[in-house]
């Protein structure tokens, strides 16, 4: 039986990936920070914090492939004195350490969950394609791109068969961050001035992303490739409000305010970044993974977004 080491198994994506791998007949080992972690279906190895000094010997014993999901995640208000150094410690140096340990033990297949932020941090009018030059500016994006480069170097030396996935914003039951904040506003039926916002954003459901990771762990055409991955057709922020409201069982309250006025207000308040996330476009062209691996998302975005809202409603009374 093929044994997969999953890092970040207790995280948002990991909680979707582990049961999927078990269902498909893989043996799963979860690398966790604390020995008292709970990961149903997997055997556990406690490795502590992931960084440049992590000992991976026990975790990699008898392993055939690795799904590396663990990361220091992007946060909006980072309180670290040197955010880039903190991101690099886990995302860059920690990934390099694990990848080198894999290379030393002959564990060749290494699926790395990167981010579209390794390519671009801000919205843009044109779709991101495989040919788009990687030019991250945020500490998170820089650290993820540097991790990709470490894997690419090992592959060029013939020591590793990495597969890099670059997803956009991920949604699903258990989601946090901006999407949970939007769910909260929809549930409270707060009037939102987004009725005329016609931006285009690629997203991916957590189950769809887990499915793509699982496929990349075994597909013969995956090694050495970097793939953009998404649900497919992009959605506007107003579309998100409508889908979330449907799942919450409330009517959306969308006010038809001109987007130009919203952008001006954001600029005057010094919140251009917030408006960029709400009103900007970021579309991923994921044709490569669909053509090379025959992958398509198993769940439609509409049903996944409604399920996310139903989870939020059930878990918040």
**What is the H/E order?**
EHEEHEHEHEEHEHEHHHHH
CATH C-level name of the domain at 3-173 and 204-233 and 283-298: Alpha Beta
Which fold name is given in CATH as the topology of the domain at 3-173 and 204-233 and 283-298? Rossmann fold
Q: What's the total count of β strands?
A: 9
Q: Round the mean pLDDT to the nearest integer and report it.
A: 95
Radius of gyration from the CA trace? Answer: 20 Å
- What is the CATH architecture term of the domain at 3-173 and 204-233 and 283-298? 3-Layer(aba) Sandwich
Report strand %.
5-15%
Helix content: 40-55%
Our count of helices gives: 11
User: Uncertain regions: pLDDT < 50 for 5+ in a row?
Assistant: none
Quick recap:
With 317 residues, the chain is an alpha/beta fold. The chain contains eleven helices and nine strands. The model has no long low-confidence stretch (mean pLDDT 95).
How do the helices and strands line up, and which of them pair or pack?
Elements: E1 3-7, H1 14-23, E2 27-32, E3 42-46, H2 57-60, E4 65-68, H3 83-105, E5 109-113, H4 139-156, E6 161-166, E7 169-171, H5 177-187, E8 203-205, H6 206-216, E9 226-228, H7 237-248, H8 259-268, H9 272-279, H10 287-293, H11 301-315
Parallel strand pairs: 1-2, 1-4, 2-3, 4-5, 5-6, 6-9, 7-8
Helix pairs in contact: 1-6, 3-4, 5-7, 7-11, 8-9
């Amino acid at each position: 039986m093929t044994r997969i080491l999953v890092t970040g198994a207790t995280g948002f994506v990991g909680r979707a990936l582990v049961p999927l791998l078990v269902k498909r007949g893989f043996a799963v080992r979860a690398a966790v920070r604390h020995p008292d972690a709970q990961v149903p279906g997997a055997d556990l190895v406690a490795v502590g914090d992931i960084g440049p000094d992590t000992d991976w010997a026990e975790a990699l014993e008898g392993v055939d492939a690795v799904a590396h999901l663990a990361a220091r995640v992007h946060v909006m208000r980072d309180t670290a004195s040197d955010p880039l150094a903190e991101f690099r410690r886990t995302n860059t140096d920690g990934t390099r350490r694990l990848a080198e340990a894999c290379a030393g033990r002959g564990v060749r297949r290494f699926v790395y969950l990167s981010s579209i932020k390794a390519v671009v941090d801000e919205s843009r009018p044109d779709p991101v394609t495989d040919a788009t030059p990687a030019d991250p500016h945020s500490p998170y994006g820089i650290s993820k791109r540097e991790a990709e480069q470490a894997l690419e170097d090992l592959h060029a030396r013939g020591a590793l068969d990495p597969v890099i996935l670059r997803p956009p914003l991920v949604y699903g039951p258990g989601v946090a961050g901006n999407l949970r904040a939007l769910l909260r506003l929809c549930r409270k039926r707060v009037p939102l001035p987004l009725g005329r916002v016609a931006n285009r954003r690629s997203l991916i459901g957590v189950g769809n992303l887990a499915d793509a990771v699982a496929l990349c762990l075994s597909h013969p055409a995956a090694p050495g490739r970097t793939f953009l991955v998404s649900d497919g057709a992009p959605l506007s922020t107003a579309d998100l409000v409508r889908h979330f409201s449907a799942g919450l069982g409330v009517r959306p309250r969308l006010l038809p305010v001109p987007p130009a006025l919203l952008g001006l207000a954001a600029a005057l308040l010094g919140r251009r970044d917030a408006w960029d996330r709400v009103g900007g476009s970021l579309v991923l062209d994921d044709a490569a993974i669909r053509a090379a691996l025959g992958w398509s998302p198993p769940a439609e975005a509409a049903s996944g977004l409604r399920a996310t809202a139903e989870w939020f409603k059930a878990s918040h009374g």
